[in-house]
């Protein structure tokens, strides 16, 4: 039933570029591809995204933040991801539940058991078939985003916060190495894209067997 892929990584890891390149390449091979993002991907999700990322909302408490990400995800699954998978599409999402574990769990310090319960409400425990982790030191990612002037509410957090996010992603990959595949995002864009293509092609082959 379709293929569900997610891209994860810290700010400035280049995951959005890689998600787009993969979507273009699979579409050119004739696959039905849905490229989407979190928070976002639906009209409701995009409004929640604006609330979450507005740098003016410095008063947002961690619980509100967690529930807003979960609300956007619930709508995203219901309205976009599950219908696409049901018609056998390849769904590529720029971030999914692993971001909640890394940001709201490892970096904000919300208990993992609570996160998993909230996530279960949003996802019914649906997990991507493959998650590509674009890994990069926090300083390098933040520097890339400063160069393009991308500064939303979470990007404005201290570098220590982003180091914890990276560590969280790496621990997720260590816990689920089959699903979460680490890629060195410090390489040139086309070298990263080649690594992504290798992983995804392998998985598509496995599906046709
Ligand atoms: P981005 O898509 O431009 O990277 O922005 C999304 C921001 O939201 C990014 O800072 C990571 C953060 N985020 C969370 O903190 N938790 C989540 O569950 C998701 C999906 C994103």
Topology:
Blueprint: E1 3-9, H1 15-28, E2 33-37, H2 43-53, H3 62-86, E3 90-94, H4 97-107, H5 112-123, E4 130-135, H6 138-147, H7 159-175, E5 180-184, H8 189-208
Parallel strand pairs: 1-3, 1-4, 2-3, 4-5
Helix pairs in contact: 1-8, 2-3, 3-5, 4-5, 4-7
The structure holds thymidine-5'-phosphate (TMP).
Description:
This protein has eight helices and five strands. The chain is α/β, with parallel strands linked by helices. It has a single domain (3-208), classed as P-loop containing nucleotide triphosphate hydrolases (Rossmann fold, 3-Layer(aba) Sandwich). It has a five-stranded parallel beta sheet, with helices on both faces. Helix 1 (15-28) packs across helix 8 (189-208). It binds thymidine-5'-phosphate. Residues 11, 37-39, 69, 94-95, 99-100, 103-104, 154 line the site of thymidine-5'-phosphate.
Kindly list the characteristics that best describe this protein.
209 residues; alpha/beta; Rossmann fold; 5-stranded parallel β-sheet; 5 strands; 57% helix; globular; binds thymidine-5'-phosphate
Q: State which percent range the strand residues make up.
A: 5-15%
Task: Let me know the CATH homologous superfamily.
Answer: P-loop containing nucleotide triphosphate hydrolases
CATH architecture: 3-Layer(aba) Sandwich
Tell me the strand order in the biggest sheet.
2-3-1-4-5
Instruction: Please tell me the overall pLDDT.
Output: 96
Query: Residue share in helices?
Result: 55-70%
**Rg over C-alpha atoms, rounded to the nearest angstrom:** 16 Å
Looking at how many chains there are and whether they match, the oligomeric state comes to: single chain
Number of DSSP E strands? 5
Give me the number of helical elements.
8
Helix and strand sequence = EHEHHEHHEHHEH
In whole angstroms, the N-to-C terminal distance is 14 Å
In this structure, how is the largest beta sheet organized? 5 strands, parallel
Catalogue the unreliable spans.
none
Each distinct ligand: thymidine-5'-phosphate
Query: What is the domain tally?
Result: 1
CATH topology: Rossmann fold
Query: From the helix content, strand content and strand pairing, which structural class follows?
Result: alpha/beta
């Amino acid at each position: 039933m379709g293929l569900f892929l997610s891209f994860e990584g810290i700010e400035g890891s280049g995951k959005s570029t890689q998600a787009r390149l993969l979507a273009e390449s699979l579409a050119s091979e004739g696959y039905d591809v849905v490229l989407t993002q979190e928070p976002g991907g639906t009209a409701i999700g995009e409004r929640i995204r604006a609330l979450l990322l507005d740098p003016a909302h410095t008063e947002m408490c961690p619980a509100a933040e967690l529930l807003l990400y979960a609300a956007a995800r619930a709508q995203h699954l219901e309205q976009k991801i599950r219908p696409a998978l049901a018609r056998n599409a390849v769904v590529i999402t720029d971030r999914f539940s692993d971001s909640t574990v890394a940001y709201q769990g490892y970096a904000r310090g919300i208990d993992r058991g609570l996160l998993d319960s909230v996530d279960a409400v949003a996802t019914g425990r649906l997990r991507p078939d493959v998650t590509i982790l674009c890994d990069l030191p926090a300083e390098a990612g933040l520097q890339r985003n400063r160069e393009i002037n991308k500064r939303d509410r979470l990007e404005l957090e201290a570098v220590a916060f982003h180091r914890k996010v990276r560590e969280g992603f790496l621990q997720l990959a260590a816990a689920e190495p089959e699903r979460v595949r680490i890629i060195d995002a410090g390489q040139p864009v086309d070298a990263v894209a080649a690594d992504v293509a290798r992983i995804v092609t392998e998985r598509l082959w496995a599906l046709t067997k």
